[in-house]
Write a structure and sequence with these properties.
single chain; Immunoglobulin-like; 6-stranded antiparallel beta sheet; 5-stranded mixed beta barrel; elongated
């Protein structure tokens, strides 16, 4: 439990804090507005393929002197004053959970009992914030963070407070009540530059010491900004006794790290005198050619040894391991590194001397440092390191029947890992409100594979806009598959090992700084209160609490309960032993079975099968949206009734069916369940039939001069209106001789009879009460040969023949000519050639003796004819 409140802290870079501040105001609104633009156009008309659609009409109340009972607020500004209800000093603290008041931008805000105050890299109760103030302020029961404190703090402290103003005349209540509180010395307090020097001159030889880290532009010169790391437990270097422990670095997750998340450190001893085994100089690779420290490199794989007395795993052979650099140890920052830092201003020399640089008397006590290095661990091996950026969480919301709201349920953030070959998984951390036991819900995975498609190598960019992420948790976590191997994280954490001077390798836990609350859809309508009812850690409490900055043996001083007073008129009922999953669960949507309906009919779809899993079940709101198909008009405007009706579009008889996809989203007043789709298939009335009938032999179209015994195929093509008919045609033969039809669908085959003749067939198609038919005659027997000319030329003793055949297709028959005298052959047979241009068969001249008196022409299709010589020329 101590890890949850003391070590589960965020990567809190100043630039990210600045972004957080904007998101709480305008960016949150823009994101939700963009979400709605994707879902509907400005008139509320549905856009295919999008999410829940809000109703197109939204009433707005007329202006009146009326103060709603609950309205939202967000304040960002300096703490002008801060008080605690019951003093809680370092020496004595009887109640760690009391609240108090804070004044920001001239407004007095109630800090409820059980508030957990979010510092840049740690969490604590409101009372604990006073208890851990510098000694000069503890004796006066002051926080040392407010402008009104005495002595006045060296600098201002900026706070972000999200809550509701609650008005209840019957109880005389009119107050601003906080729900979420975040603080930093300045949200945009960011510096960066090159490390010029590390000055150990103020340190005692052999005694761990935090040196002055000079950051500026000139190497080896002690100019520019002076930096100390705020690491009170010595995680990243020697503790700094002047630092404000409330603004500590995260000592459970690497916030002093390279860009890829590899934990960095400052040697506790001057490297020129002795080596720090927890921050060894040889753990920083040098370029073999220039001997300068490398800025992008990959650690080799190494073998883990047994955990030491503190439960920390080192490489076999520590402190002189065989494999160097050593992935089990932190890496030192060096002169020449470019860093970005954020922290608090501390004065260590009083007074400052006029004319000297301010860094001569003040330094930055940094809780977050990002070193511009690309340090990676061996792909697919442990240890691996993960670092989380801030996570943005859309807390949902739903359509209010009177005052609709913009609402979005999503989660996204950018994370880093030293192993870009493995996925990074994102989880919520669900806390049992009574026992403090943690469990994790899987949200999704991101791939940090890097260029050319993934951007920065090692960055795992998580973007999820579809899914159920509720309820929101105070903390989220990320884990590399190099740690889990794909197994559920809760099966890995009980035996997870610590490396790098006490960091859990491959796992990172951090609070959520940015929640996107529902906002008004219509300008001028009553403001939507912030929905703290959806936050289980505010409703049910946060489990056992171990005071901040306690020794390792400290025990819980009690259980964090529900915020009191609650930031609304009526407080929800807390649930003991709850992880929050029982708190305002999304409903389950059921749009009923798919339907097939006639054209022009009235269609009823029903969500009656939908359910709400909460106890007691909450009233449901149903939102239907057409995704595709011909547009229809939803007739039910009452979104509390589960049924919806519309008139199916009118289709032309015989037209193809159309499918109308309708999406259903079911909400319960706080959150919406996943959308489901019901498909309605509209079928047109049957169209008038039509049919054609053709025949072929061996795949060639043919209906006459069919050779006896040939196999003939009849093919029917039928349509009913605009589409193919749903039933096959019926074949029949008219007259004789009868043949046997073999029917398959819309084709029929038969063998032509041996006797020549004409066969007649019909194909009949029926659609509803209408029929259509086609008739085709098949001629079985020889073709007819027509002789155009037979010429004998005396000079050349040549014979020329011109003839034709009725065989189809044209030219298919082979004509053979035999010269005759007195009906007896006097020469060899000669084959005629078909000329497609002249559309006739011709026989080339051939020498014939004696002179024939006639010719016999025989067709390969069975036809035969004898023709006399029609012309004799010289």
């Amino acid at each position: 439990m101590k890890r949850h409140f003391e070590n589960s802290k965020p990567l809190f870079r100043p630039r990210l804090m600045g972004a957080t501040r904007l998101r709480l105001l305008s960016v949150g609104a823009m994101l939700m507005a963009a979400s709605l633009v994707q879902g509907a156009n400005f008139r509320g008309v549905p856009v295919p393929g999008t999410g829940i659609l809000l109703p197109p009409f939204h009433p707005v109340l007329a202006p009146q002197p009326f103060v709603p009972p609950v309205t939202p607020f967000t304040f960002i500004g300096f703490i002008q004053s801060a008080t605690v209800d019951t003093p809680c000093t370092q020496a004595a603290c009887t109640d760690f959970f009391v609240g108090g008041f804070m004044e920001v931008n001239g407004t007095k805000i109630r800090i409820p009992r059980n508030t957990i105050f979010q510092m840049p890299a740690t969490q604590m109760t409101w009372a604990d914030m006073f208890k851990n103030a510098p000694a000069a302020y503890q004796t006066l029961n002051q926080s040392g963070l407010a402008l009104a404190d005495v002595p006045k703090p060296l600098t201002t402290y900026e706070v972000t407070v999200v809550g509701n103003r609650v008005v209840n005349p019957s109880t005389g209540r009119d107050e601003y009540v906080a729900g979420l509180v975040y603080i930093a010395q300045q949200a945009l307090n960011l510096g960066n530059g090159i490390i010029n020097a590390m000055d150990y001159s103020k340190c005692t030889a052999g005694v761990p010491c935090m040196p002055d880290i000079w950051v500026g532009t000139t190497l080896t010169a002690k100019t520019g900004a002076r930096i100390h790391l705020n690491s009170p437990n010595g995680r990243y270097g020697a503790p700094d006794l002047l630092a404000d422990v409330r603004f500590t670095a995260d000592e459970g997750n690497p916030t002093i790290a390279s860009r890829t998340g590899y934990p960095m450190c400052i040697p506790r001893f001057d490297p020129a005198v002795g080596n720090d085994s927890l921050c060894p100089q040889w753990n920083r690779v040098k370029d073999p050619f220039t001997t300068a420290f490398s800025t992008n490199y990959t650690f080799p794989a190494a073998t883990a040894g047994a955990p030491d007395a503190n439960g920390i795993t080192h490489q076999v052979g520590f402190p002189a391991p065989a494999v160097k650099p050593d992935p089990f140890e932190q890496t030192p920052m060096e002169v020449g590194d470019f860093i970005s830092y954020t922290g608090n201003v501390i004065q260590d020399v009083t007074p400052c001397v006029a004319g000297l640089p301010i860094s001569s008397c003040q330094f930055i006590s940094a809780h977050t440092v990002s070193v511009e290095l690309g340090i990676y661990t061996h792909p697919g091996t442990w240890p691996v390191y993960v670092q989380m950026g801030p996570v943005t969480f859309g807390v949902g919301g739903t359509v209010n029947p009177i005052f609709p709201q913009e609402a979005v349920e999503k989660i996204f953030g950018d994370h880093f890992t030293t192993d870009f070959s493995q996925l990074v998984d994102l989880y919520s951390e669900d806390l049992n409100s009574t026992t403090g036991a943690l469990s994790h819900r899987f949200y999704g995975s991101a791939d940090p594979f890097g260029p050319p498609l993934g951007g920065i190598q090692g960055r795992a960019r998580f973007r999820a806009f579809v899914g159920n992420f509720l309820p929101p948790s105070r903390n989220v976590a990320a884990a590399s598959r190099s740690l889990t191997g794909g197994a559920p994280i809760d099966t890995i954490l009980p035996t997870a090992r610590f490396t790098a001077n006490g960091l859990m390798a491959g796992f990172y836990s951090a609070p959520t700084f940015t929640f996107i609350f529902p906002e008004n859809l219509i300008l001028g309508s009553t403001q939507i209160p912030n929905t703290f009812e959806e936050f289980p850690f505010l409703v049910n409490g946060g489990g056992p609490y171990i005071p901040f900055n306690s020794p390792p043996t400290a025990v819980s001083v009690g259980v964090v309960g529900q915020l009191a007073p609650w930031p609304s008129v009526n407080a929800p009922t807390p649930v003991a032993n709850s992880t929050g999953l029982q708190l305002i669960q999304p409903p389950v949507a059921n749009a009923g079975p798919n339907q097939t309906v006639p054209s022009g009919s009235t269609v009823t779809i029903s969500a009656a099968g939908s359910s709400d899993p909460n106890t007691p079940p909450m009233a449901l709101i149903y939102t239907w949206q057409q995704l595709n198909g011909p547009p229809v008009i939803m007739q039910n405007t009452n979104d509390t009734v589960p049924t919806q009706t519309f008139v199916a579009p009118t289709l032309a008889p015989g037209a193809a069916p159309v499918v109308i996809a309708i999406q259903l989203a079911v909400c319960n007043g706080f959150t919406c369940g996943g959308a489901v789709i019901v498909n309605v298939t509209v079928v047109a009335a049957a169209g008038a039939p039509s049919v054609t009938l053709t025949s072929s032999v061996l795949g060639v179209a043919k209906s006459v001069n069919i050779a006896p015994g040939a196999t003939v195929t009849l093919t029917a093509a039928a349509k009913c209106g605009l589409t193919t008919c749903g039933t096959a045609v019926t074949f029949a033969q008219i007259g004789t001789p009868k043949v046997v039809l073999t029917i398959t669908g819309n084709t029929a085959t038969f063998k032509a009879p041996a006797t020549p003749g004409t066969l007649t067939f019909t194909a009949v198609q029926t659609s509803g009460a209408t029929t259509a038919s086609a008739t085709l005659s098949i001629v079985v027997g020889p073709d007819t040969i027509t002789v155009t000319n037979v010429v004998y030329t005396q000079t050349f003793s040549g014979l020329a023949v011109s003839a034709n055949s009725t065989a189809l297709p044209k030219g298919a028959a082979i004509l053979t000519v035999t010269p005759l005298v007195n009906n007896k052959a006097i020469g060899a047979n000669v084959v005629c050639f078909y000329d497609p241009i002249l559309n006739t068969y011709t026989m080339p001249e051939s020498i014939v003796n004696p002179i024939p008196d006639s010719v016999k022409i025989v067709s390969s299709f069975g036809g035969t004819v004898i023709s006399p010589i029609l012309s004799i020329v010289k």
